[in-house]
Design goal:
Elements: E1 2-4, H1 11-19, E2 30-43, E3 51-64, E4 68-71, E5 74-81, E6 85-94, E7 113-127, E8 133-147, E9 152-159, E10 162-170, E11 174-186, H2 188-195, E12 214-227, E13 231-241, E14 257-273
Antiparallel strand pairs: 1-9, 2-3, 2-14, 4-5, 5-6, 6-7, 7-8, 8-9, 8-10, 9-11, 10-11, 11-12, 12-13, 13-14
């Protein structure tokens, strides 16, 4: 495991990664300020049969320019793109799991907050980038970090190739519909962190288990957003299936199917350009 001695706070990042709205390409520097709240229901971890509800306030800050944009959980560099390829930086996050509140992990170390970040290569299959319709093949490769608020530790890598369909509709308000299907892969360090059982934590119901790298299941993602003059609302859902994953027989896996749900509301406070 890599060790990085640096203090951090990522609670706001998690809420923004799950709920933050879009920033798109613009010829001038444009900004928006606002505030929002997200309501989430998430499994403790993929494969757990226990879940937790969250209510998270978050700031809404948008800056649009020719050089850089942010679209929910992706940072776009406009200089590194063409008509059929685009290079982005993606990120995602996961909450801490208190093992004392999870039956399968009782007596084991807690799972810390996790942050993923890395490059995303997008290949356009149909439509056009930054229009009302685009179908792409995306290849995210993310470095994973975990933190307990005192320091950050590197915890392997994940790859999540996906087919992504985006549709936008403009009527009296703006709508965006995103569908994607992902195939998940985790490195040795990543899978061990979530699914291994060391000899120190073996019980009669929880045998020793050594997780390895490889296929980690597949996931379907759906999100819907609506934007009006003063408000942005959105809903997301994802379903993950780990039936054929390399860690499916871990004693820490209770469910082959996991669901996550979320809803957010953002109120615009101020907008401008210069």
């Amino acid at each position: 495991m890599e060790h990085i001695n640096i203090k951090t706070i990522i609670l706001s990042f998690i809420s923004l990664a799950l709920t933050s709205p879009s920033i798109s390409h613009s010829r001038e520097l444009y900004w928006e300020l606002g505030a929002g709240v997200g309501m989430l229901q998430l499994p403790h971890y993929i494969g757990s049969n226990e879940s937790k509800n969250y209510v998270l306030p978050f700031p809404y800050v948008v800056i649009k320019s020719d050089l850089l944009s942010i679209d929910r959980n992706v940072v776009h560099g406009h200089l590194l793109s063409s008509d059929i390829f685009k290079f982005d930086i993606g990120f995602s996050a996961a909450f801490k799991v208190d093992s004392s509140k999870n039956k399968l992990r009782s007596g084991m170390p807690d799972l810390d907050y996790a942050l993923e970040a890395g490059p995303v290569l997008k290949w356009l299959i149909d439509g056009e980038f930054n229009t009302n319709y685009e179908l792409t093949f995306d290849l995210p490769v993310h470095k994973v970090f975990v933190t307990d608020f005192n320091d950050i530790n590197g915890q392997g890598w994940r790859a999540k190739p996906m087919i992504h369909l985006r549709n936008k509709f403009n009527d009296n308000s703006y709508w965006q519909l995103d569908n994607s299907i992902q195939w998940l892969y985790g490195s040795d360090d990543y899978n061990k962190y979530y699914y291994s059982v060391d000899s120190n934590y073996v019980t009669a119901e929880r045998p020793f288990y050594n997780a390895t790298s490889g296929y980690s299941g597949w996931r379907y993602n759906l999100s819907i957003r609506q934007s009006t003059k003063n408000m942005l609302t959105g809903f997301f859902m994802n379903y993950t299936n780990i039936r054929s994953s390399v860690f499916n027989d871990s004693p820490l896996v209770a469910e082959n199917n996991s669901f996550s749900l979320g809803f957010f509301v953002t109120w615009f406070i101020s907008r401008g350009s210069f």
